[in-house]
Amino acid sequence: MVSAGVFVGLIVVVTILSKSHADRNVYPSAGVLFVHVLEREYFKGEFPPYPKAGDSSNDPITFNTNLKGYPDRPGWLRYIQRTPHSDGVLYGSPTAEHVGKPTIIEITAYNKRTFETARHNLVINIMSTEEFPLPYQAEFFIKNMNVEEMLASEVLGDFLGAVKNVWQPERLNAINITSALDRGGRVPLPINDLKEGVYVMVGADVQFSSCLREVETPQNQLRCSQEMEPVISCDKKFRAQFHIDWCKISLVDITKVVAVHSNRPDPGTGVLPDIGEYNPPSESLKSRDYFTDFLITLAVPSAVALVLFIILAYSMCCRREGVIQLVHHSSIQKSTKELRSMSKNREIAWPLSTLPVFHPVSGEVVPPLHPDNYETTSMPLMQTQTNLQNQIQIPQQQSSGRSLIGSCSLMGPMSCPVS
To answer: Does the keyword Signal apply (predicted)?
Structure first.
């Protein structure tokens, strides 16, 4: 990585250029698993070291891989890198269609500490062999592994050794490895060190062993349908390191598979032919009269509504049941009106709280304030004594001496006023 600095006033302009490694050639075989590790140590020497000698140079490095001249990789090639502090892995299974066609993969390493890049090309030369593909292929689903763990040569070698013990073939090879996430699986919860799972396809040159065939028995098929683990005699040979879901095992004999050939058209150049300018349709098109359609749109709903109205009128007015219903409804309305008029005109006894009372100061009589026709629900129980608009004054009697004497004589000498 070469960097040049130009100082102008207080502005520093830094130009970062990338170094390019020499091309690396690899020679995988068609139908056999291809694994290429992008080692971070290989690119660390191209990036500047830390300023202090004592600092550990553990730079976060990520990789970008793409087919030369294209934004993505070939369909058979996958790439995975969990963290910027782990190595990247290119893996896949090339097919016979890619034999003889060199595949150039551009690999760009990004240093996230210095923002520098390093680039080199990986040339994949796919070779053809007469031994592949092997006729008998079995695909296992391993639940306690991630794809990058399974791609490690030691782990993959241990798994192939366990398969060889239960299969006993002369030739056994790993054909392909696929993450469960690429098959529609869910991302596991980050608890209990759960794994996403991985599918591993292997091929052999002999028939499937009786142990692998045990999953096809009716008892095990029933257990799988009930989401229970089937009983497999050779499971203990895998259980120590690999937890296999035997309900998801797939056994394929490619010698009995009927090949389906589809007649695909030859792909073109992707450029439309030059057919001249666009010519709009002529004005000689026949016009269409929508008046009939308009009448039908209105006439049909109107006719249906009219028929329904006639049926309803006949049922309510011409039939005995309808007439009875109308008469009954009318009698209910008349009775309701009559009861309401009677309730308004009825005479009731006045409550004691509404009788005339005397004013506590002036001694005047205060009558209850209520109209002749009223509703008992709206009549207050106690009349306000402050409203003096309708008060009835008690007429004062003109007492004469005779009348006073007579009254005093009747009531007693103690009740006569003293003048």
So the answer is: yes
